[in-house]
Amino acid sequence: xxxPRIAIxxxxxxxxxxxxxxxxxxxxxxxxxxxxxxxxxxxxxHLGELPEIDVGIIQGTVITLADVEQVKKVRxxxxxxxxxxxxxRTGWIPTWIKKENREKAVKYVYGENxxxxxxxxxxxxxxxxxxxELPGCPPEPALLEKFLNDIPSLLAK
Amino acid sequence: MNLPDYVTKIEGHxxxxxxxxxxxxxxxxxxxxxxxxxxxxxQNATRAPFITSRIxxxxxxxxxxxxxxxxxxxxxxxxxxIIIELRKLMLSGxxxxxxxxxxxxxxxxxxxxxxxxxxxxxxxPAEYHLALNLKRLSDHLLTVVGGRPIHPTTTTVGxxxxxxxxxxxxxxxxxxxxVLDEAADFVKIFMSIEYPxxxxxxxxxxxxxxxxxxxxxxxxxxxxxxFEPKNxxxxxxxxxxxxxxxxxxxxxxxxxxxxxxxAIARISLLGDMLNPKAKTLAGEFRPSSQNHNNFENIKAQAxxxxxxxxxxxxxxxxxxxxxxxxxxxAISLPKLSEPTWGIGAVEAPRGTLYHAYExxxxxxxxxxxxxxxxxxxLTSIEADAEALLHALKLDQKVQNICVIExxxxxxxYDPCIxxxxx
Lengths: 157, 422
Hints:
The structure holds two protein chains of two kinds.
Chain A: E1 5-10, H1 16-22, H2 26-34, E2 36-40, E3 53-59, E4 62-64, H3 65-77, E5 78-84, H4 85-90, H5 102-110, E6 118-122, E7 132-134, H6 141-156
Parallel strand pairs in A: 1-2, 1-3, 3-5, 5-7
Antiparallel strand pairs in A: 4-6
Chain B: E1 14-19, E2 24-29, H1 36-40, H2 48-53, H3 60-75, H4 81-111, H5 120-123, H6 125-146, E3 155-156, E4 159-160, H7 166-192, E5 205-208, E6 218-221, E7 226-227, H8 232-238, E8 239-242, E9 251-254, H9 263-270, H10 276-282, H11 296-321, E10 340-348, E11 351-359, E12 365-371, H12 373-391, H13 399-413, H14 417-420
Antiparallel strand pairs in B: 1-2, 3-4, 5-6, 6-7, 8-9, 10-11, 11-12
Helix pairs in contact in B: 3-4, 4-6, 4-11, 6-7, 7-10, 7-11, 9-11, 10-11, 12-13
């Protein structure tokens, strides 16, 4: 079997979840050997159009239309979709502002004449089917390590 | 010409828009609005540190502590020496954690001609080994004092819910001693890199204290002026944030002009107070706001890595000399007799971070204003991009090279787009 092809995506978030991968240190290097990383904006440049991938890893809250498109695209390209961290899993802190109060909140932060990018604050599963969720704010590196180790068996199912 | 996609290898989502003919550059921040200031409204003030650390995964400790300081300032709570020293230790760890991430994972690939830090390991195993040792150390420091590296768990308004064990502090001190020589080699890598050349006049701002330790009650400027940020009106008078139609982040200015905060400003303003090994490594290097070149921020961060390793060693030494109670004292929070503003300011890795809250008599937040370092730097990023475009002597044929150099410039700022759209 070829190397499994994985990709890591961040929606609107603090990026703490993806930094936890760096917390794996030497082990992250081993994973970078075992798997092909097709996309990871934080640490590598764009490699062009996203190819078909085995595992798509998403962190962050769905807040902008670009986030919605991103999630749909990843679902289309990925055999297995994982939501990591509370923002991807539940929407987390940004959902504490209800949709009907967003306009008022935007005015409070940005003033009267500002056109926001954000439309709502949603969990990934409210847009597309999610195959696995890894909880935590942020998830512990050990949990991420276990998941990375499990990828071949998850794909074999 | 637009860069069609995100500027990769920075924290958060930004697009650089360059108009070559007019020599103009715009950094369009496209991160979705997260509205943290609105989220805080109506919340019990003691919850703010938990919530606001989640503004940023790269500098959560800085947000957490600035938030705590803001609430303590409103409630007039004076923490004791042990608490202050533990906080300085956490902030030292925070700066090491964040600078290391930037220098090694985001900057080095630019100058070593590799596409990503994950590919550095093959060509530069020694440097990779160094970086991972420093990563291990900063993770451990933030875990011993703060509970974990990302989103601290031990801190609270008034102090800590758990103090570190002395045995853990001793281990930590030994680890720092062991890594100092390697860290010096790491710093030298960044001091010897040749960076693109351009100059312009800017202004540097930083908090000032008796030591170079990331806390302080006064903001000093390279212009010679200063102000007290704990006066909310003074803060708003000095640091203005402007909403732009092309960015979800506001743009900061000081007296209506672009200015710089962060390592470059601190080394320039506080360089006399560097610890010995950092001072030796810095040598003649001292950034000047009159001759500003933001690539010097990379060198400044490298010097600060050493300075804060030494600072952490000193702080642990002080903490080992005093009796640390097994359990922190319970703090009863005073009630306010009228709505009161509290301001907390710390030097975060990228510069001065302000949290300002107005708290009512029930202890709830009724107004919140958070001013992040990257927002303060954004106006300067555009000014520097334009200065660099001029210096590169534009030619249609070299547009691609310009784009690469401008991306490097933006990365040299270590912008935290995530923080800027809080």
